[in-house]
Structure formats: C-alpha cells, structure tokens
Write a structure and sequence with these properties.
This protein has 4 helices and 9 strands. The protein has 234 residues and is of the alpha+beta class. The chain has an 8-stranded antiparallel barrel with strand order 1-3-4-5-6-7-8-9. A hairpin with a 7-residue loop joins strand 5 and strand 6. The two termini are 29 Å apart. Mean pLDDT is 82; it is low at 5-10 and 12-56.
C-alpha cells in the first residue's frame, strides 16, 4: 500500500471517530478560555489562497537548506523556548505553559495517525523564547485534501497566518512535516509561495497529542520567538 493510499484510509478512520456536531458544547461568550464558534466568510471576502501543488512526496526534495537546518535544530529550539519561559519574570507565563499539558511538553507522548481529517478547526498560537511566553486567542484553521492526496493546513484568521503542505516523515510515522509560509496582517489576502521570501518561510512538525488535538511546532521563526506552537483542536 502506498503512503497516499494509507493516508486516505487514515483520514476516513479519523472522520468516523469525530464527535457528532450536535453533541458538542455550545460556545459561552462569558466562559474564560472558551474557543469561539466557527466563523462564516463575510460577503465578498476572498477565500484563502491555496498552496501550490508539490511535485514530490519527499519533503526534503522541496525544503530549502535553511529550513532543513532549522528542523534539525528542533530540540535546541524547544530548549531555548522553555528556558525563556522559565527565566521570565512572569508567573502567568509559567502557569500558562503548564496548563497546555502535552501541547507544551517536548517529552509528551504523541499518538499514531497524525493526519487531521479535512475540515475546519480551532487553533491558537503560543510564542516561547527570550520574551517569556505570549499566548493568543482562538482563531480558525482549515485542513484540505487535494485530489492527489496532498494535505494543506491553513490558519485562516489572525494577524499571522501560516499555510503549507503536510508531508509524511520517512523517519517518524507519528509526525508530519510542515513546509509553508506566513501572511501578515489583514491587508494580505494571499499567501506567499514557499521559497519566494525566506523571511516568510516556516518549517515544523505536526503531532497528534489527543483524540482531537494536535500541535504544530515551528522552530526558530524569523521574528519574536525561538519556538512557535500552533495548537489545533476540534
């Protein structure tokens, strides 16, 4: 069985496990930390641009050398990010990190079948590093599956929005490799092509840490932090 055939089978299984929509708790705007309900596109708004189709199934054939190096130094990014939080003057930052559980723990046990099923998700960003930790609220993410079997992850809302392809990792079946770019601010409605601007390129790993919970770990982003974590949930 090819990896793409296995991917389709895994996605079908993941879709079957998902909780029916009518059984999910309703959003209470007054409840602290409660993620917002899915948002609808405003009339006339442009849908997010799709990442360009890839010509290879091996992420290493497509990744820029600098991004291969950043991913190779993932453990060092985790260490730098956690050190920044530990040494910060903010007790709240340390409490927020502990509250993340497996999302913020590099030693957490990750689960098999890391492929998220296509659809809409909630997502939020945490930035770790010399400034301590900055946590953002919940936004919207989307996973799409191309006819050829490629998974694309897009952060649809927020001031820093990643989009990229998810590749299998030949060295670790329990994670996917993310190669993508970042769009900034409300004025940018399209995503740059990967490789067109090194300051926008991002690389990371996607891991499943719960039944309907993932983390996208992005080492050595170009601005603000040593490690970014995008928590993704349903």
């Amino acid at each position: 069985m090819t990896w793409k055939a296995a991917l389709f089978a895994a996605l079908a299984l993941a879709a079957c496990r998902q909780e029916p929509q009518e059984t999910r708790a309703h959003h209470d705007p007054a409840a602290p930390g409660t993620p917002p309900p899915p948002m609808k596109m405003e009339p006339g708004a442009r849908a997010p641009a799709r990442a360009p189709a890839q010509a290879t199934d091996d992420w290493r054939d497509y990744a820029k050398p600098g991004d291969v190096d950043r991913l190779a130094r993932l453990d060092a990014a985790w260490a730098a990010g956690l050190k920044g939080v530990a040494e910060s003057d903010s007790d709240k930052a340390r409490e927020d990190l502990a509250a993340l559980g497996p999302v913020g723990d590099p030693e957490a046990t990750v689960l098999p079948n890391p492929h998220p099923a296509p659809g809409d998700y909630r997502c939020r960003t945490m930035k770790l590093g010399g400034m301590g930790m900055i946590s953002y609220g919940w936004f919207r993410c989307r996973v799409e599956l191309s006819p050829g079997g490629d998974l694309t992850l897009t952060k649809v809302t927020g001031s820093q929005r990643q989009q990229g392809k998810l590749y299998p990792d030949p060295e670790n079946p329990n994670r996917l490799i993310f190669l993508g770019t970042v769009a900034w601010g409300a004025w940018e409605t399209d995503y740059p092509a990967y490789g067109s601007d090194p300051q926008r390129d991002v690389v990371g790993v996607l891991e499943r840490v719960g039944e309907q919970r993932w983390r996208l770990v992005l080492p050595w982003p170009r601005v603000e932090s040593d490690l970014d974590i995008l928590e993704i949930a349903r």
